[in-house]
């Protein structure tokens, strides 16, 4: 009788806990499951559900432990295996996660969610072909499974197979026309395809379905900026603010527009929002105060690095203005830049350069300021940018420059440095060019070309030579990505540089090298090149900017530069 009573009691406890779970009362359910495993410590259902609840509450370690205990008791639980795998994905333990997904699928070959979630794990692990295979297995089980179609579209977008991504999203939308996730993701891919007008239409459909989806408003704003429809974009940003959305991205977009219109004073105000964006590194955590103005004297000021190499070079064009004040400065940089800056600022005794990967002790400084924060003090209008045709603030190593000059000297020929790619993942497909796009320049006689492009470009150079007979000289002794000091000297010996937007063109501009920059029509994220009524960079006066007149048209700006260089060489300049 006692055994029957205990069994009945346990059954009622399980039923009550399940009832609480169905009512989303997971804390109450957790209490019951904890009581239950006090009675039967190896109860697999209680352990599995406890593990699942702990994961829902954000207690990953506890949740994983309960699930593993449950699986030890009963290894034939496909759901427990899958839930454990899900938790391991969140912890970025991808190999372990995939192992448990495989066990779950082996137990239940028709476990749709396990195939889909395994695809997600493979994608995050950058095993893209395996991810595709797992998603396709899910679609064989259920061809109209919305989440799998959307996830596969997301994967194709990440792989930059944009047409395939659109195909997946369209299939999902056909099944579920009001699915905002499918429509929003489709609009993202349309942006990657530079189909901004179509992207705006898809954003409008998304907003119509879900008027509170902030991401759709911000994405539409970025498309309008790319189309240079600044007034409409500003109106949309005002709508976002009126709706009381908390949107750092909207404020950041407002800074981009103001930069593009040369409204620097307002632009810097809104640019402060960058530290609230997910893509931006967090603001320096320090108990010392941030610098509010440069009226201070005899203080130690820490100007810390933010963003990438190009941004650091850009913002440090303002450094001369700051160190003229009566203060001492610590400036953090990518360690690859330190030799160049130490040499270039050797005449200043009040500045010391440190590695941004190490930081400095708070006791060494009184105030701190991000490098991008210099702009609001010293670049509040176009008038603050000096018109210096021979401007340079960085200096190459003379000995290295002499060495490279002897190595690549060709009598009566000009030397042109070439760079054509950006490694910035989210917009490299917009910024980067193919080497064959430079053919009008390559055809100009009496120019030799030197590779300034970082990364593995051997196949690019080989294809150019095989298809067009054009050879770009490579200095094998330089690791262009890691040895920026040698790259600076290589740029120094060039007569001029042709490049897309990347760290190389920033370095060339800072060295005062005559440079020709090619920018895409949709250059919203590259606000530092977008100046109203100017074809020269305000930041680097020796950099001439040639933009696409329309999306994907590299031929027009390249031919413009080719004609300019041809005329220059004919005049013997």
Fill in the keyword field for this structure.
573 residues, alpha/beta, Serine Threonine Protein Phosphatase 5, Tetratricopeptide repeat, Rossmann fold, 3 domains, four-stranded parallel beta sheet, 27 helices, 9 strands, globular
Explained architecture:
The protein is of the alpha/beta class and 573 residues long. The protein contains 27 helices and nine strands. It has helices spanning 2-22, 26-39, 44-56, 60-73, 78-90, 94-107, 112-124, 128-141, 146-158, 162-175, 180-192, 196-209, 214-226, 230-242, 248-260, 264-271, 309-315, 319-323, 338-344, 375-378, 398-407, 428-431, 439-442, 458-468, 484-493, 503-510, 555-570; strands spanning 300-304, 328-333, 351-355, 367-370, 414-419, 447-451, 496-500, 515-519, 543-547. The strands form two sheets. A five-stranded parallel β-sheet has the order 6-5-7-8-9, with helices on both faces. The chain has a four-stranded parallel β-sheet with strand order 3-2-1-4, covered by helices on one side.
In brief:
The chain has 573 residues and is α/β, with parallel strands linked by helices. It is 53% helix and 8% strand.
Main sheet overview:
5 strands, parallel
The overall number of domains is 3
So, the CATH homologous superfamily of the largest domain?
Tetratricopeptide repeat domain
Number of strands: 9
Question: Helix tally?
Answer: 27
- Beta-strand content estimate: 5-15%
Question: SSE layout and pairings?
Answer:
Layout: H1 2-22, H2 26-39, H3 44-56, H4 60-73, H5 78-90, H6 94-107, H7 112-124, H8 128-141, H9 146-158, H10 162-175, H11 180-192, H12 196-209, H13 214-226, H14 230-242, H15 248-260, H16 264-271, E1 300-304, H17 309-315, H18 319-323, E2 328-333, H19 338-344, E3 351-355, E4 367-370, H20 375-378, H21 398-407, E5 414-419, H22 428-431, H23 439-442, E6 447-451, H24 458-468, H25 484-493, E7 496-500, H26 503-510, E8 515-519, E9 543-547, H27 555-570
Parallel strand pairs: 1-2, 1-4, 2-3, 5-6, 5-7, 7-8, 8-9
């Amino acid at each position: 009788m006692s055994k029957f009573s205990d069994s009945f009691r346990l059954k009622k406890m399980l039923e009550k806990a399940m009832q609480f779970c169905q009512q989303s009362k997971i804390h109450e359910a957790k209490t019951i499951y904890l009581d239950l495993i006090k009675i039967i410590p190896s109860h697999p259902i209680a352990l599995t559900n406890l593990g699942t609840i702990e994961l829902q509450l954000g207690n990953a370690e506890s949740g994983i432990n309960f699930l593993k205990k449950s699986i030890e008791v009963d290894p034939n639980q496909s759901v427990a295996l899958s839930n454990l795998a899900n938790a391991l994905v969140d912890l970025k333990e991808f190999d372990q996660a995939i192992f448990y997904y495989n066990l779950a699928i082996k137990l239940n070959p028709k476990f749709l969610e396990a195939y889909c979630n395994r695809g997600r794990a493979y994608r995050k692990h950058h095993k893209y072909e395996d991810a595709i295979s797992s998603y396709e297995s899910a679609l064989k089980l259920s061809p109209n499974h919305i989440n799998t179609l959307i996830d596969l579209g997301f994967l194709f977008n990440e792989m930059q197979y944009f047409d395939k991504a659109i195909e997946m999203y369209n299939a999902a939308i056909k099944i579920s026309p009001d699915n905002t996730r499918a429509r929003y993701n489709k609009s993202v891919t349309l942006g990657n395809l530079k189909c901004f007008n179509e992207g705006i239409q898809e954003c409008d459909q998304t907003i119509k379905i879900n008027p509170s989806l902030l991401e759709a408003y911000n994405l539409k704003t970025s498309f309008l900026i790319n189309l240079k429809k600044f007034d409409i974009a500003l109106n949309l940003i005002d709508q976002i603010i009126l709706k009381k959305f908390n949107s750092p991205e909207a404020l950041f977009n407002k800074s981009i527009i103001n930069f593009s219109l040369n409204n620097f004073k307002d632009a810097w105000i809104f640019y402060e929002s960058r530290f609230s964006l997910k893509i931006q590194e967090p603001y320096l955590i320090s108990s010392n105060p941030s610098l509010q103005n440069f009226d201070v004297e005899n203080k130690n000021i820490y100007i810390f690095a933010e963003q990438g190499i190009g941004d650091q070079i850009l913002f440090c064009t303002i450094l001369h203005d700051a160190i003229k004040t009566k203060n001492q400065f610590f400036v953090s940089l990518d360690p690859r830049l330190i030799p160049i800056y130490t040499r270039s600022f050797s005449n200043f005794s009040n500045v010391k350069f440190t590695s941004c990967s190490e930081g400095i002790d708070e006791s060494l400084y009184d105030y701190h300021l991000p490098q991008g924060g210099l702009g609001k003090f010293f670049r509040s209008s176009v008038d603050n940018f000096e018109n210096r045709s021979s401007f340079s603030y960085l200096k190459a190593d003379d000995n290295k420059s002499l060495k490279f000059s002897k190595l690549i000297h060709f009598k009566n020929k000009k030397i042109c440095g070439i760079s054509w790619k950006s490694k910035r993942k989210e917009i490299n497909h917009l910024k980067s060019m193919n080497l064959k796009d430079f053919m009008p320049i390559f055809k100009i006689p009496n120019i030799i070309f030197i590779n300034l492009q970082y990364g593995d470009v051997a196949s690019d150079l080989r294809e150019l030579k095989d298809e067009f007979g054009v050879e770009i000289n490579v200095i094998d002794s330089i690791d262009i990505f890691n040895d920026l000091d040698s790259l600076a000297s290589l740029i120094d010996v060039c007569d001029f540089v042709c490049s897309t937007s990347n760290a190389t063109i920033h370095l060339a501009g800072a060295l005062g090298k005559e440079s020709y920059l090619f920018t895409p029509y949709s250059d919203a994220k590259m606000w530092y090149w977008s100046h109203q009524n100017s074809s020269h960079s305000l930041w680097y006066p020796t950099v001439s900017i040639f933009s696409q007149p329309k999306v994907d048209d590299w031929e027009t700006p390249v031919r413009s530069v080719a004609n300019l260089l041809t005329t220059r060489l004919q005049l013997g300049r």
